[in-house]
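Bench log. Compound arrived from synthesis this morning; before running ITC I wanted a structural hypothesis for how FE2/S2 (inorganic) cluster sits in the protein. Inputs:
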Amino acid sequence: MASTEVDLSPVEVGQSITVTWRGTPVFIRHRTAEEIEAARAVDVSSLRDPQTDEDRATKPEWLVIVGICTHLGCVPLGQKKTDPHGEFGGWFCPCHGSHYDQSGRIRKGPAPKNMVVPEYTFLSDTLIRIG
Ligand code: FES
């Protein structure tokens, strides 16, 4: 299966990039300490699709998720600072109003599942292989 290597060294704290992997967008976000703290403070049992942030982001400063809404497949907004980030500070899908948090977990709206974490490996501190 095709994999993609991404150099993360130019991605600043608080910045997100979108890369393409197997024809789908993958969001990579260099999270701030505040975002990590907020994502980890959530009561997992209150979530529609209960997953800890620790399980979703093994290196907490890097969140890597498939940028496809799990409702009907739109690409959520939130990659740019000026985008809407929804009520939970992550991403917002404008198609039917799904709100995702700083871990890419569904928090409000029709989407049934969290945005998917693809398989990935850190080859070094700043080089990641997706797939
Ligand atoms: Fe995202 Fe429907 S496709 S809310």
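What the model suggests: The helical segments are 33-40, 53-56. The radius of gyration is 14 Å.
ITC booked for Thursday regardless.
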